[in-house]
Amino acid sequence: MQKEFADLQVRNTEYFFSAPKPDPDFSKKNYQNPADYISSDKNYSGKNFEEYVKTIDKYPDESFDVIVVDGRARPSCIQHSLSKLKSGGYLVVDNSEREYYMAPFKFDEQSWKIWKFAGPVPYIHDFSETTILRKIQ
Predict the structure, then answer these.
(1) Would the pLDDT of 137 be above 80?
(2) How far apart are CA 53 and CA 35, in angstroms?
(3) Is the residue at 61 inside a domain?
(4) Which domain holds residue 82?
(5) How high is the mean pLDDT of the chain?
(6) What confidence tens digit (pLDDT) does each residue in 106-117 have?
(7) Would residue 102 count as lying in a domain?
């Protein structure tokens, strides 16, 4: 990616790669718990995404106008992104029809404006949902 950015003369982007790490306690964890940093994807069984999730912690609170959550350990990613979002900023959560992504969080109407968009997914015969939340306060 670094080479691609250089070739395209993209200068306003930082790229980080954090590979999942083996987790000896994986079997004791729950992918729905944001504090566990694991994924439900069978391809990542036994792996932990804590370093990946915590990459955003390098930035001060209220640093971002937009945060997109579309990867592994999404409840953990949402948890770490909330304080990093500016007032008036947008949190985009893909595949939000998977209720456990959003279940640990309280997005009340006084603090968040919420939009949900459902539609077909390319290359598979299924529908999905993307939720966009705007932080009011």
Answers:
(1) no
(2) 10
(3) yes
(4) 20-135
(5) 95
(6) 999 999 999 999
(7) yes
pTM over 0.85: yes
CA 61 to chain centre: 16
CA dihedral 70, 98, 123, 90 (to 10 degrees): -40
Residue 46 lies in a domain: yes
Q: Residue 132: its pLDDT value, please?
A: 98
Instruction: Give the chain's domain count.
Output: 1
Is residue 14 included in any domain, yes or no?
A: no
- Report CA 20 to chain centroid distance, whole Å: 15
* Ramachandran quadrant class, 88 (left: phi over 0; alpha: psi -120 to 50; beta: rest): left
